Amino acid sequence: MTTYNDAYLVWNSIIEQTISTGKPLRFKKIMNNGQPLPSPGETDPKILVKHVGEPKGQIADWRASFNNSKAGFHAVEFEDYYETHIDSVDPIKDPIEHLLKDSPRTLFGVIGVFVIGGLLFYVFTREK
Predict the structure, then answer these.
(1) Comparing C-alpha atoms, which of 122, 121, 28, 20 is closest to residue 78?
(2) Sheet (strand 72-77) strand order
(3) Taking 90 as the threshold, does the pLDDT of residue 81 lie above it?
């Protein structure tokens, strides 16, 4: 029999709330009962993994994958709260499609770096 710790139960509930509302949510790190919200890394069994996300001044990004779905859960950890949302494409499963659908600014930034880098390489390495 699998046992679930409190962190697992809390984060499973947060994931369910995020799915059911279909919109981004914000959760304070101190719950209404005065207790601290458990860290996503404390869930047992592990449902959230530390990952990367678009820089927004956050402390960390946490993700959970869903079985039989392309979508994924994303929690962005800030100093006093977490922002949660559902990505239409889980970057763990398909990073390129995730960039295209959920984070196009990041994709354009990466493409821009490669284009500018290539141009600079060409300019400084061509024979004169």
Answers:
(1) 28
(2) 25-28, 81-87, 72-77, 60-65, 49-51
(3) yes
pLDDT in tens, 5-50: 889 999 999 999 999 999 999 999 998 889 999 999 999 889 999 9
Tell me the HSE value of 1 on the side-chain side, using a 13 A CA sphere. 2
Hey, where are the domains in the chain? 6-93
CA dihedral of residues 34, 39, 40, 46 (deg, nearest 10): -110
Only one residue has tokens 């790190």, namely 29
CB-based burial, 45-69: b 16+ in 10 Å, e otherwise: eebbeeeebeeeeeebbbbbbeeee
Cβ neighbours for 31, distance < 8 A, ≥ 6 positions apart = 37
pLDDT of residue 71: 97
Q: Is 29 helix (H, G, I), strand (E, B) or coil?
A: coil
- Per-residue pLDDT at 126 exceeds 60: yes
